[in-house]
Automatic annotation (TrEMBL), chains A, B:
Keywords: Kinase, Transferase
Protein's organism: Marinomonas fungiae
A molecular-function term among this protein's GO annotations: kinase activity
Full protein name: cAMP-binding domain of CRP or a regulatory subunit of cAMP-dependent protein kinases
All residue ranges annotated as the Cyclic nucleotide-binding domain in the record: 13-118
Length: 197, 197
DNA sequence: GGGCGTAATTAACCTAGGTTTAGAGAAGGA
DNA sequence: TCCTTCTCTAAACCTAGGTTAATTACGCCC
């Protein structure tokens, strides 16, 4: 798709924070990613120096443990920055993969020079702090739910938070988001159905 | 204890970030808190406009669910800022209490005017973003451990991360940090002892 | 020393959720 | 049309950790 057009979206996204960015510096490094369902932007264990901007579509962050179990940490909707803050700031391999849940479009740009330039811009740094605050708060709520709520409650929470996904996303992935096996989720769903009557 | 002296520590803490702060504005609002073991700086459900700086000692962040179960989210050592970013930025009641694990000293100051002034200071905003990044990374690792590791593994992780606490902290609180009951922890400990032989 | 409150252990029992295996639909491809 | 593959459901069984309750151990105050 049109790189010009997508870059436009990225610029608009940052405009809302009144950050003063010289995009010309990155023109040559910006890459367009057309994703089909199941394609990955970033793979667990990979080192990447890029941040991504999700222009359209939907992705999930998931990780796989040594024992082969999959856990979906986050589901992110466009428009949004996506990427591993941790991997970029500590320059370590990513702890999770980022996978498209539908067809999606994203662009990538190199984080270091961008962050270098941006950390001189107060408006941007403020916006970045706000971004971190918001994902932090989300993470805190998810930790809370994982520890304090039963699987059934977490499923109901998921249905409340993502009403548009509860019927379109495969149940395996819903199960992986709430931290249980698809089999347990199936049990919970039939249990809920019989309770309703 | 000497307010002057503790305030000095707070200023030194921010000096390391080269933030340019006019402390005179807050002199009258700064309060000193001398904490005994078990005293709380902040109580779950309370609204507070203050941020705290832990000058000496050790605190834990814990929350109690409706069903009366306690969960320790974080253990924080001095010197450090402590408080609920979430409660302050959204001006909502705190989701957790902050309790001293030993005798500790802290000072409090009003967050809003401070943050207002500080968000004009690039060095401070950068430092704040780094602070958020660091607690975010910690939270991500804890979420990961809670989901992927067994209670036994989480106990071993705790012993690795807090070697100085594993014998001094009451087992109830260790259990609450790793998200199990004290009874389960006792079982795990005897299990580990017999395994060693 | 004797009582008392708190913390830690132990054992018996229970339950949520994992594991394994099998089968039922739906969807595509030759 | 049949065959394959993928997703979901169902049932039998297992296990980690929760629950309850009784027992012991360790201060601490009188």
């Amino acid at each position: 798709m049109d790189k010009q057009y997508l870059t436009q979206q990225l610029m608009q996204f940052f405009d809302q924070y009144q950050a003063n960015i010289n995009w010309d510096l990155y023109q040559t490094d910006i890459q367009v990613h057309m994703l089909n369902k199941g394609d990955c932007l970033l793979r667990q264990g990979e080192r990447s120096a890029n941040m991504f901007f999700l222009c359209s579509g939907l992705v999930r962050y998931y990780s796989v443990s040594e024992s082969g179990k999959e856990y979906t940490q986050t589901i992110a909707k466009s428009p949004r920055l996506v990427g591993s803050t941790r991997a970029l700031t500590l320059s370590q391999p990513a702890l999770f993969s980022i996978e498209a849940l539908h067809a999606s479009t994203a662009i990538s740009f190199p984080w270091q020079p961008f962050y270098q330039q941006m950390s001189q811009d107060l408006a941007f740094t403020q916006a970045y702090a706000m971004f971190l605050e918001s994902i932090f708060i989300h993470k805190e709520q998810k930790e809370h739910a994982m520890v304090k709520h039963s699987a059934t409650q977490r499923y109901l929470d998921f249905c409340r938070d993502f009403p548009e996904l509860k019927d379109t996303l495969p149940q395996q992935q819903i199960a992986s988001y709430i931290g249980i096996t698809p089999i347990a989720l199936s049990r919970i769903r039939t249990q809920l159905k019989t309770d309703q009557r």
